[in-house]
Amino acid sequence: MMKINNKRLQKIFIILLLFQLIIYHDSSYAQIGQTSWGSLKYKKTYLRTGPSKENKVLWTYKKKGLPLRIMRKRGDWYYVEMADKEKGWVNSSQVSTKRTIIVIAEDLIPLRENPSTNSKIIAKVEKNAIGDLLKCERIICEIDFYDVIGFVKKEFLWGVD
User: pLDDT band for position 24 (50/70/90)?
Assistant: First the structure.
C-alpha cells in the first residue's frame, strides 16, 4: 500500500486550486466567438473604463441607435468599440440587438433604388446619418434611412463586416 505524504497532497491541492482560478478568471471575460453587432438602446448611454457603474465614464453618447461592435462580455457588461474608435464598457441593458449603421464617408453618398451602381439615386445621405441595416451582400447593403429604403456601398458604412 502507498503512503500518502501530506505535503505532497497539499501541493497538488494548491496546484488544482490555482488551475481552477485561472479557468474561472478567463471565463469571466468571455470572448464573443465572432464579431457581434448591436446598437445603443437609449438616447443617453455611458461608455465606461470597466465593467461596473463604479468605473469612470469615458464618454456619454446621446444618440439612440448608434451602432457598436461587441468585442467581449463580462457578466452584464459588454466591451465595445464605437464608430469613433472609442472602446469601453457598456451595460448590456443599454444595448439593443437591432442592427444599425452609420455613414462614415466625408461627402454625400447616393442611396440607390436597386443594388446596381447604375440604378436611380433616390436620396443623398450625409456623414453620421444612422440607418437600419436590412441586409448586406458582398459590396452593397440595403439600408432603411427613416423609411426611405435603398442601397449603399458597404465601404461608406460603419457597422458591417
Answer: very low
